[in-house]
Amino acid sequence: MNPKIVYSPDYDIHFYGIEKLHPFDTRKYSHAYDLAHKTLGDRLTQATITPMQPVSDDDLCLVHTHAYLESLKSTSVLVRALEFPPLAMFPYSVIEKHLLLPMRLATTGTIMAAREALSGGLAINMSGGYHHASADKGEGFTVFSDMSIAIQKLRAEGLLSRQDKVLLIDLDAHQGNGHERIFFHDDAVSIFDMYNGSIYPNDGYARKRINWNLSLAPGTRDAQYLNALKDYLPRALGEIGSTPKLAFYIAGTDIYEGDMLGGLHISEEAIFERDRFVFETLANAGIPVVLLLAGGYSHDSYRFIARSLEYVIETWARS
Ligand SMILES: [Zn+2]
Fold it and tell me: Which candidate, 277, 272, 280, places its Cα nearest to that of 309?
């Protein structure tokens, strides 16, 4: 296996310091990468590729409606999607440069990671996983549906056919309603979603699209969480029919017990075990996987991401 890490220091969001008022740790990307680099050094540098260009308008149009993309030129629409009222004080050009550009760059990163996973078996984009954005609406801090765009881009490039199975494994604490709406009528995409059923977005329509729906109670703890994952994920792989050509693993660390939004009670050790189990299960099944960071609102999140990143390079770069 030849794991690739897709990363740019420009994934971080810097916004005159007011980003510190937002629950999102907007610099967890560089914090996680830099921490892993202390352990891995050149091994990480050699595995890293860097997106240079923000995703193009044409690629955004593979998933999002023209009307929605036009609406993003309005500050008020962005403020609503990003759930951050202080943004309204800033000129649009500033919001575009400091918020939309990093998200567009991360979307390019998800496309690159998907291509790399197809050829090398495993790739991590050190951002992305914007799983609440749908074709015509941004919400829950997310504007562009990066994994949906990556799937449509790979189809357009002929790297995936319309019939090739794609598996989305969404283990962020929140239901992934965006991609569930986008792929509502697309049977080639199978969705495994395990989330806290008592918090946002509570999207009943999108929930109907989930193939393996594991709605957890608030406060769910390690044993129950890991037992559910270890029971249902292999079962899902058995039920899916043909082997997926590609999987996306939306690895939100907001399941952490110290997270201010996720409402679950999962320890650092169990987060690591979750990631390890997903990688090992997919590797044993011969399914290439792209990991995306998604949510994680604790100031410890970057440490968990770094640990899984170190695991990937130390374990899978050799095999
Ligand atoms: Zn989340």
Answer: 272
